TrEMBL record:
It holds the Pfam family ABC_tran. This is ABC transporter ATP-binding protein. One of its GO terms (molecular function) is ATP hydrolysis activity. SMART domains: AAA (SM00382). The keyword Protease does not apply. Signal peptide: none annotated.
Length: 296
């Protein structure tokens, strides 16, 4: 497996607070990765470390075969769109593109120009006059036109209305299909992740609690409903993530390495949102399992 991002024991501390701790990841190249978790979980910290905008306190990280931010060649491999989709309010769209060309050795001027034309943006208009959706598209255009191997997006659609968000994500998927770029998309919206991503990383309280191919993760988790039962009596290969009980009934969300054959259980599928919420609610249940943390 070729990894576009590898992390081992990665941690970042600000004074006495760990923003990211003991992070171990192998993100396959060519994937669209959804990075989810509550505020303060470490999503932005992980992306800033991957972009070379920050340095680790502990451990190591490798991106596109090199150390993040280690030089012009390495910086050219990574595109980064921050949460506030940063643009310069006083500069026109055309000036943004000229600046991008001056700063990025792989800059694709034709691609940038075509995107601006297709989006109906006036090159003479200043960024400060654009709507939130238009600024996000301008920032994405700059990130794409530098022709990176890895594109990092930190909550790029958080402030957009549903229509603008859909347009942004559609453009993103077209770029992935045309360029084959790897993407890590941080988002609070599981529906957005489900729409465009094929790989999932879940962060809670500064640590990774779940990572892997979305299809494989969904296939490995099940909702069990049956007569009230102590979860401790389940087979060793059925790991309980969440449990709820009534007087007569038990409902469990479990991760299992083999099929559920106990006839006492009614076995149901788990959706992506339910899976993510289960790990957010019970992060201590997420004991590391390599089969789910490092997938194709």
């Amino acid at each position: 497996m070729t990894a576009v991002l590898r992390a081992r024991g990665l941690g970042k501390r600000y004074r006495q607070q760990w923003a990211l701790s003991d992070c171990a990841l192998d993100i396959p190249a060519g994937r669209v990765v959804g990075l989810v978790g509550p505020n303060g979980a470490g999503k932005s910290t992980l992306l800033s470390l991957a972009a070379g905008m920050n340095t680790p306190t502990t451990g190591e990280i490798e991106v596109c075969g090199g150390k993040p931010g280690s030089g012009p060649d390495q910086l050219a491999k990574v595109g980064f769109v921050a949460q506030d989709t940063p643009t310069y309010p006083g500069l026109t769209i055309a000036e943004h593109l000229r600046l991008g060309a001056a700063l990025n050795p792989r800059w694709d001027a034709a691609l940038a120009r075509k995107r601006v034309e297709r989006l109906g943006l006036d090159p003479k208009k200043r960024a400060g006059q654009l709507s939130g959706g238009q600024r996000a598209q301008l920032a994405l255009t700059i990130g794409i036109a530098k022709r990176p191997e890895l594109l990092l997006l930190d909550e790029p659609v958080a402030a957009l209305d549903p229509l603008a968000r859909r347009g942004f994500l559609q453009d993103l998927m077209e770029t992935v299909a045309e360029q084959g770029v790897s993407v890590v998309l941080s988002s609070h919206l599981v529906t957005d992740v489900e729409r465009v991503c094929d790989y999932l990383i879940t962060l809670v309280s500064s640590r990774v609690v779940l990572a892997g191919d979305i299809e494989d993760l969904l296939a490995a988790h099940h909702r069990l409903t049956g007569p009230r039962r102590d979860p401790a009596t389940l087979p060793a290969d059925q790991h309980v993530i969440t449990a709820s009980h009534t007087d007569r009934q038990t409902t469990l969300l479990v991760r299992a390495e083999s099929p559920i054959i106990d006839p006492a259980w009614t076995v149901g599928k788990v959706g992506l949102e339910d899976l993510v919420l289960a790990y957010l609610e019970s992060p201590d249940a997420a004991t590391p399992r390599p089969a789910l943390e490092v997938l194709r």
